[in-house]
From TrEMBL:
Record gene name: ABSGL_03640.1 scaffold 4609
SUPFAM superfamilies referenced in this protein's UniProt entry, alphabetically: Nucleotide-diphospho-sugar transferases
Locations listed in the record: Membrane
InterPro entries cross-referenced by the UniProt entry: Glycosyltrans_GT2/GT47, Nucleotide-diphossugar_trans
Database matches in Pfam families: Glyco_tranf_2_3
Record keywords, A-Z: Glycoprotein, Glycosyltransferase, Membrane, Transferase, Transmembrane, Transmembrane helix
Single Gene Ontology MF annotation: glycosyltransferase activity
One Gene Ontology term, aspect cellular component: membrane
Transmembrane parts of this sequence: 13-38, 319-337, 349-368, 380-402
Species name: Absidia glauca
Listed name of the protein: Glycosyltransferase 2-like domain-containing protein
Main location: membrane
CDD domains on file: GT2_HAS
Length: 445
């Protein structure tokens, strides 16, 4: 590539590539610096909130299995007042049996007529009697210190929602992780760095992940919130059921509540992921939810610009990320093809260019994932697959952008919004009662 010094004709192609590269690595080192400076909030010796008095765990599920027992025992170790499982009527028997096997005195099972995650969550909210409510996935495994560290954040009276850091729990009982689980682990490492950085810089977070997130119950019991939450449509006609965590995060931003991410070992949860190619379907669903939510945050609601400008900028960056990522190999291909007609006697062979570029990518990705390899050095063998996955992900993001009308779950039989309740005269009366509050709920747009 030293030929650039002799062939100024290639500058129009490679100067933009250099500028993009400089920007992306500058952006990366800013995030790393903020991540290093970040500090979690520590529990007080005499806390305002106690798990056994002030916390209800709500778990919407339809098909909990043996992993539920492991997760439930980890929740109980954190001493919550109660755990409420919300399922569909047909699954009451199996879920009640699981609850009885773990702790029937602490775990209650409630039902809704048909599976719909958001309606299940609202059912759990209305059954809760504590000041703090924690939503958890049925496979989220906690450390015994989880609730103590979550509650530490609620000493701030304006704190509305608190998220956690995450890592992968292997499906295989031996602890062996497949390629797909390691890829998920790479993504979680990047996410943990990102949310710690944004929390440190401006107190914002792009998403309070639904795997485990805590909220003040009074926010969730608001009739305006519940109406918006269960009547959420994309473009006014596609009912949304997934993306509940994105909705909740935007609600905190738009209604003046603070958010915080507890990124530390004491508040780290373990979660299972698809250990086969179906992981890609999960990623596709998450990507569509991110597109929809970020568009709303940036262009419809716009609260994020004023409250958390750094987070807003990260959202803008993600909009263009697929294009900047794909620009690199395209310009390198252009450079390789140009060598065939290079005026010198010793043009660079195409394989030399390709290998050099691949080694550069491997080195820089290894640097970005260094925090992951500090914990799991054995995962480094997946690094070449991570390169391929990144380019696949860039193309998939563009595909997701043009298929935002597809609102199904993809990996489950639970179709988004398929069981939203029919509107009745009572519903219209209720809608009229909350109209004044609904004027601030732009998420129904």
């Amino acid at each position: 590539m030293l030929y650039l010094t002799d062939d100024l004709g290639l500058l129009p192609f490679f100067l933009p590539l250099g500028i993009i590269g400089f920007y992306r690595y500058l952006w990366f080192f800013i995030k790393i610096a903020a991540w290093i400076a970040y500090q979690p909030r520590l529990p007080k010796s005499n806390p305002t909130y106690l798990p056994e008095r002030d916390v209800t765990i709500v778990v919407p599920t339809i098909d909990a299995g043996e992993e539920f027992k492991i997760a439930a025992k980890s929740w109980l170790a954190c001493r919550p007042k109660e755990i409420i499982i919300i399922t569909e009527t047909s699954m009451l028997g199996p879920l009640q049996q699981l609850a009885n096997e773990v702790d029937p005195s602490k775990i209650k099972v409630r039902t809704v007529p048909k599976a719909n995650k958001r309606l299940q969550m609202v059912e759990g909210v209305n059954a809760a009697t504590t000041e703090i409510l924690v939503f958890a996935d049925d496979d989220a495994i906690w450390k015994p210190t989880m609730l103590d560290y979550i509650l530490a954040c609620f000493e701030d009276l304006k704190m509305g929602g608190v998220g956690t850091s995450q890592t992968v729990h292997a499906v295989d009982p031996s602890g062996h992780q497949t390629l797909w689980e390691i890829l998920a682990g790479y993504r979680l490492t990047s996410r943990n760095i990102e949310i710690a950085a944004s929390t440190h810089i401006d107190g914002g977070i792009c998403c309070l992940s639904g795997r485990t997130a805590a909220y003040r119950t009074l926010i969730l019991k608001d009739p305006a919130f519940q109406y918006c939450f269960t009547n959420d449509f994309w473009l006014g006609k596609y009912p949304l059921n997934s993306g509940d965590d994105k909705f909740l995060t935007r609600w905190m931003h738009s209604h003046g509540w603070n958010t915080y991410a507890q990124v530390c070992k004491e508040a780290e949860l373990f979660s299972t992921f698809k250990n086969n190619w179906r992981f890609l379907k999960q990623v596709l669903r998450w990507t569509r939810n991110t597109w929809r939510s970020d568009f709303r945050s940036l262009f419809t609601e716009r609260y994020i610009w004023r409250r958390h400008p750094y987070v807003a900028f990260t959202m803008v960056d993600k909009l263009f990320n697929p294009l900047t990522l794909l620009a690199g190999p395209l310009l390198v291909i252009k450079f390789a093809l140009s060598q065939e007609h290079h005026p010198t006697n010793a043009p660079l062979p195409g394989w030399n260019i390709a290998v050099s570029y691949a080694l550069w990518l491997l080195a820089t990705r290894c640097l970005k994932l260094f925090p992951h390899f500090l914990k799991r050095p054995q995962d480094i063998w997946v690094l070449p697959c991570w390169l391929v996955f990144n380019y696949y992900f860039a193309i998939m993001k563009l595909y997701a952008l043009f298929t935002l009308h597809e609102v199904g779950w993809g990996t489950r039989n639970l179709e988004a919004g398929a069981q939203l309740p029919e509107k009745t005269g009572d519903d219209h009366h209720q809608q009229h009662e909350v109209k004044l509050e609904m004027d601030t709920c732009s998420t129904t747009h």
